[in-house]
Amino acid sequence: MSSRHFYRGYQFVELSTLVGNDKYRSRVAVVDGTDTATSSQQFLDFEVYPDRAAAQQRAFVGARAWIDARLAAERLERSSQLAPL
Predict the structure, then answer these.
(1) 7, 12, 21, 41: which could join 63 in a potential S-S bond, CB 3.0 to 4.6 Å?
(2) Distance separating alpha carbons of residues 62 and 68, to the nearest angstrom
(3) What is the CATH number of domain 3-80?
(4) What share of the chain is helix, strand, coil (3-state, %, to 5)?
């Protein structure tokens, strides 16, 4: 079962899947936007794990790290657009 989480203005859905031999690929979909209008979505694939719980944990940590990096890049971009004094 997938789980939906909200973090710093983004939502993400854990999508880890069985890939054979009782191993799970850690996956997550990150959505930026509101409930009425989606501005972007990103699908992230991570490592393969021997159990679903480990794959889910990696997806959760990976999604938050991706969101943090995206927000930091946006802040840097906005600050570089300021006019010099």
Answers:
(1) 12
(2) 10
(3) 3.30.160
(4) 35, 45, 20
